[in-house]
């Protein structure tokens, strides 16, 4: 058996403690699988005193994670501090500068500085592993970096935020409003006190930025992602989706187009009979379309201490095994510059829900504005007007054939100016999963 | 860049030719990803003359694959001949005896001789890779051997045969009978002229035998698998399943029980709203339940030249990278003996469809036989008797609460002897996917 792999773990929250516990508890199994013993030799966390469910005897303690990365007697550095900058970044850089491989669950660090860090790693003859940074326990990084290594990817998409998926699932199944559902999610610990990062789509965007680079061999470009959260989704939309044979999910999508890479995170209608549509609750799922495989789908837990720890452990085992592919799938020098396809050029079908004043000319306005912008309609459903409060309004739901984002925005802008609408039009993109 | 990896490919059917073409066509991409050039240096196939879509200049030709494995100037041997014995086995053994790693898509070879071959490999300091042997392009072997390496698995199950899934999907969507559907599948090349291996469940059993070993760290035991094919499934069952909120799939299941490992392949009713139930046509899917991850699901193409070639290429890249985990996930000496849980001890819900003579006492016979065997019923549906042909018979559909296979068999045996049934009872197991 080869010499032991000495690990330094920085950050002992739920995931970090879980990883250390697993290495202690499953020591023999892990050693048999990889032919090498894993030993935690150094630790760093904010507070030292806390009991964390594993035996820290013989492990060196560092108050400063950067000192651990710089001076610890370690063969691999496990960064579970979090945050795109600050000590997490400094510590990772310090480890890489020593040529020590880094295992991290830090999506923000990679989404913001992934290319620079990949360069630093390669320059020092090492790599970064980050299975836990995207979709928790789902082995999507390993799949994209290794299993698909002979494939050219055309699209990667999925459900990457458990909080949003949990909320949309409950809104659908229990008819809850967005606000009451959010409160419940917060009470249950599925949503943060400030939920913006999750429900605004930003968490999913960070993960998508990383997947895009792996998928297309391009530099990471978080700032190019079109991001729209779920806060405007109503039970009316969810019910209309069901009637039309769709379900609404917060989808993260990245695809190659003629004008560059299109990255977007937004609520989308997807066919109710698709496997992706059955992904409920906090579960995540990622699908990849590629030349050799056609389409594959991976679904599983997107968060949680033990699932994330499982992903971290998988990376540690790869380091122990001795081979790790290039951080972003290719040597950093071979990554292509990111070319952004503008969101206005996005092509697809659209669902539009309008609240229309029940008066002469309203429907003609809709029909004309769509026609003017070259938008053809797949279906139109107008419900009976609600006349109880003053001038009646009628809900109208349109589903368009494939058109462009620019055309839809122009049509809705003109429609709003015509003055027949009560309130803002609702628009949800339809994702074709074939 | 490290020295090139020299490959010998034996078997140049669709998959073998595809692999060689991809290595030629994607040469630069593959070398960038793994830091090493892949070069096919030796070939063997039945006929030499055939043009196969890649340049064979500089490649040594062997009429005998065993000679290639024994004498070829190669660093890895790619076996794409097929068959559990004969030259495929001999050639693989010859390569392993030289300490050369083997990449194979041969499920029969592994299901029958996997443990012996793993021992031979380990004894010579090398390993066998077989991503393409199970579920085609889905990276389930890599996932189980590497991504789940810290997990203890409790159940692995899935849709492992594309032919059966294609047929069941068409029977459901088009109301076709089994026989007409089989003929169509044969005409379209989705089923063999002798379809027994697929529709009898044996193909899925071979794949399951391999997954079971990886899941539970046990020796492979193909002969312990309870196998039941799909030929008795009727459109009536499919329609009844739909009414009850299920879909019928040929499921391969392996799980740990108190009395050992339970391996079975049979048609099963699974919840229509589950992700697995949406896996249609020739697509395969595998789900794994484990301690750290809960449940993950992988779906994708289960067969086809390019998907299988993609999996072979992924294995070749791993060999080029230099680390491969133990063939069956653990060193062969650490594999546990296989302990078989008897199928009669299987616990679950059951769907039973009876054709009952429309006479006094028939229903009492059903109720009594179930009660005698401790079986409680979740639902009973009796349709109106069909009186057009002599003594009328009425279809009766029962769904049981959880019970044992032994109890169901005893109840149905007694019921048949009571003489109230026209024809054999139909019984389909219900799989709980929670």
TrEMBL record, chains A, B:
UniProt keyword list: Amino-acid biosynthesis, Methionine biosynthesis, NADP, Oxidoreductase, Threonine biosynthesis
GO molecular function, one term: homoserine dehydrogenase activity
Gene3D superfamilies given in the database record: 3.30.70.260, Dihydrodipicolinate Reductase, domain 2, NAD(P)-binding Rossmann-like Domain
Taxonomy, superkingdom: Bacteria
Record domain ACT: where: 351-434
Binding site for L-homoserine: 192
Coiled-coil regions listed: none
Organism: Jiella flava
The family this protein is said to belong to: Belongs to the homoserine dehydrogenase family.
UniProt name for this protein: Homoserine dehydrogenase
Residues engaged in binding NADPH: 107
Listed EC numbers: 1.1.1.3
Gene Ontology biological process terms in this record: methionine biosynthetic process; threonine biosynthetic process
Record-listed NADP(+) binding positions: 10-17
Pathway: Amino-acid biosynthesis; L-threonine biosynthesis; L-threonine from L-aspartate: step 3/5; Amino-acid biosynthesis; L-methionine biosynthesis via de novo pathway; L-homoserine from L-aspartate: step 3/3
Family annotation (InterPro entries): ACT-like_dom_sf, ACT_dom, Asp/hSer_DH_NAD-bd, HDH, HDH_cat, HDH_CS, NAD(P)-bd_dom_sf
Pfam name, any one: NAD_binding_3
Active site: 207 (proton donor)
